[in-house]
Structures are given as C-alpha cells and as structure tokens.
Amino acid sequence: MFWKRVAEYYASSPHAKASGEPREWLNLKQRWQKINDYTNKFCGAYAATERHISSGQSETDVLKAAYDIYFANHQWKFNLEHAWCLLRFEQKWLSLNTPKPSGSGKRKAGEECSQTSSATVGDQEVRPEGSKAAKARKNNTQGLKSIDEIKTVMELKKDDLMRKENLSKLAILDTLLTKPGTLSESEEVVKNKLLAQLF
User: Could you give the angle at which helices 147-178 and 185-198 cross, rounded to 10 degrees?
Assistant: First the structure.
C-alpha cells in the first residue's frame, strides 16, 4: 500500500527520528489531504490575483494580495507557504497557477457589451471571430498544427518528464548516500535499485 510505504519513508527521515513521535500511515494521509486542500485553495487565490495584476506590482505584492483573497474567502490565514513553494511548479498545480486568458478587461466607464457584437451560448459569452483570425483561416497559414509538430511537442514533454523523474531519483539516492549510520534493509534495496537504474 502506498501510504504504508510513505509512513516507512517518513519514519526513517531525520525529522521523524528527532521528534520521537511515530506516525501511522493514516495520520500522514490525513495531513497530506489537508495540505492538498489548502494549497489548492491558495493556488486559486494566487491565480485570481495574477489575472488582475496591475502595472508596477511586484511578486511580493501579488503574494500579499493572494493571502488577502485567501483570508477573505476562508476566514483563516494560509500558513503552508513552504508547501506551496514546493508544489506550485509541479504538474498538478501548474494548471491552477497559470492565469487564464480573459480579454483586456479594460473598458471605458459605462461601456456595455451589446448583443449584436457577441453571441451567447448558454451562460457563456462567445466572441465573434476577429479579422486577423478570419484572414489566417482564409489563407490557411495558421491552420491546424501538423502531426510532426504535435509529435515533436509530445517528445519534448516526455523528455522533460523523464528528466524530472531522474532528478527525483537522484535526490532520493543522494539522501540515502549521505544518511549517517547504517541503512535499513528497505533503504539498502532502494539504494541498490537506484544505483543500478541510474549508473
């Protein structure tokens, strides 16, 4: 079971040994669920802040505004910044962190969208095709990507994923190699397996 392996790994970490408190796999799973939930909510607040960033705002200003949004929505302060800093660039959270494109957002006071300029589908507003997009479609210069381009992008993503996986394996191996004292049987097996895979 995955969480039992996580508990074994945690129990062998210096942090767990220093605290002296053994934690069961269920405790670790519940803690991860809280971290995951709070981090997802903070990612949403951060993305909302990024969508409304104004000229001259620094990264610190954006982060402070995200904290304010999080507090306004949930009535408690976000105190897992260390976890968010580790997780924000991982694949799962990248989609939550990247701001969604949303028009210019700058309209003159009193200007309203008219029904003649846009069509409404359900509750969503659909913009009409612009002149540049129409010309591109007509000339077919910006049509669908070729299969070769798609394959190239997929290969690059696959290579990137392999590199990230190798980096995480190297980090685990480095932790095991620099660990003071003797390794447990499971740690020794993991170390030998990683050495065989990587070298």
Answer: 140
Closest to 197 measured CA to CA, from 159, 156, 162: 162
Residue 181 has pLDDT above 70, yes or no: yes
Nearest CA-CA partner of 8 in 21, 20, 24, 30: 24
- The yes-or-no verdict on residue 47 having pLDDT over 60 is yes
In this prediction, residue 180 has a pLDDT band, given cuts at 50, 70 and 90, of confident
Number of C-beta neighbours around residue 190 at 10 A = 17
Cα 2 to chain center, whole Å? 22
In the prediction, which pLDDT does 115 show? 40
Compute the average pLDDT of residues 68-85.
Answer: 85
User: Letter for the amino acid at 115?
Assistant: Q
CB 62 within 8 A of CB 53: yes
Asked if residue 145 has pLDDT above 80, the reply is no
Strand partners, 125: 120
